[in-house]
Amino acid sequence: MFVSSSPISEQIERIASLKQQRNAVILAHYYQEGEIQDVADFIGDSLELSRKAAATTADVIVFCGVHFMAETAKILSPEKTVLLPDLNAGCSLADGCTPEQFGQFRAQYPNHVVISYINCSAAIKAQSHLICTSSNAVAMVESVPKGRGIVFAPDQNLGRWVEKQTDRELVLWPGSCVVHETFSEEAVLKLKAAHSEAEVIAHPECQNHLLDLADFIGSTSKLLAHSQTSSAPEFIVLTEPGILHQMRKAMPEKVFHEVPGLDGCSCNACPYMRLNSLEKLENCLINLSPSIKIEEDLRLKALAPIKKMLELSK
Ligand code: 13P
Ligand code: SF4
Fold first, then answer.
1. Separation between Cα atoms, residue 188 and residue 237, nearest integer Å
2. H or E stretch including 9?
3. 277 lines ligand 1 (CB under 6 A)
4. What Cα–Cα distance (Å) separates residue 258 from each residue in 35, 36, 85, 187, 199?
5. Residue 282 Cβ contacting ligand 1 at under 6 Å
6. pTM for this structure?
7. What is the DSSP letter of 262?
8. Helix (H, G, I), strand (E, B) or coil at 289
């Protein structure tokens, strides 16, 4: 059964009652539409969301995010039903790193430790020794003894930033995020000139030349936390603009500027994250579908490096 659109307030009430009936928890990433963030039980960055998914006592996890996030939840909690409102919500980083090509790539470095960013499929996780997120990538690389080679995939921008922070050389898989690759440097410079008191805060998936303009770099949760503790009255935010919803809610007295893409396009919004909607969220709770399925053998292989990350970042 599928419901069609109806007034938002009614939809929100129906979602709340379905959530109770199903003993479900709604987890949402900061890049979701504001109205989805507002019905979520928990909003967080990739690391916090995977911790929540591992710890919840709910029978059903509705993951308002993208496929690799819901898949990670299923890997951590196989006994639970994990729903993704739109199964097509992928990620350019995950989709651009296929298991066959990655297998050939890492085979060139048989003695290297393989660290993969959580933005990858279960099949890539299964080929990795350790997983990282944007909030712990530096610590995960530093957990590997100096002198040992590291293959880092699939985000080369995050990898380059980690290289700088750790003063280590990594073998980088040449992937990138379609959203963080599109920010216009010219637009950042114009915003800086027009708002001289503003701090530039950036996600490490941005390209190097943009990170060079940043006063603070961190995961989505770290950007939110930094804007709360900083004394700056204004911020130029170099990441997907969904995060501005929480920033403006938490700090109505501060001003947050989003950065447009090249040529002023609105491609700063993640096309995958934005596939989810309140309507699809309600429908997945009614139908308990689409749900994430994963073969047990693959799940166990992908679980080992995720567990290692969670242990190392306690
Ligand atoms: P976070 O680690 O900040 O959640 O980033 C995830 C992501 O997909 C950024 O594009
Ligand atoms: Fe993937 Fe980029 Fe979207 Fe994050 S913003 S989910 S890295 S495509």
1. 9
2. helix 8-22
3. no
4. 18, 20, 26, 10, 12
5. no
6. 0.96
7. G
8. coil
How many Å apart are CA 165 and CA 191, to the nearest integer? 27
Atom of ligand 1 nearest to the CA of 222: 3
In the chain, which residues have pLDDT < 70? Answer: 1-6, 264, 266
> d(Cα 286, Cα 27) in Å, to the nearest integer?
17
CB distance 270 to ligand 2 below 6 Å: yes
pLDDT digits (tens, 9 = 90+) for 34-76: 999 999 999 999 999 999 999 999 999 999 999 999 999 999 9
Which domains occur in the chain, in start order? 8-89+273-293 (3.40.50.10800), 93-176 (3.40.50.10800), 185-258 (3.40.50.10800)
Torsion angle of the four alpha carbons 137, 73, 221, 309, in this order, in degrees rounded to the nearest 10: -30
Length of the chain: 314
Q: Whose CA is nearest to atom 6 of ligand 1?
A: 46
- Ligand 1 contacts CB of residue 283 (under 6 A): no
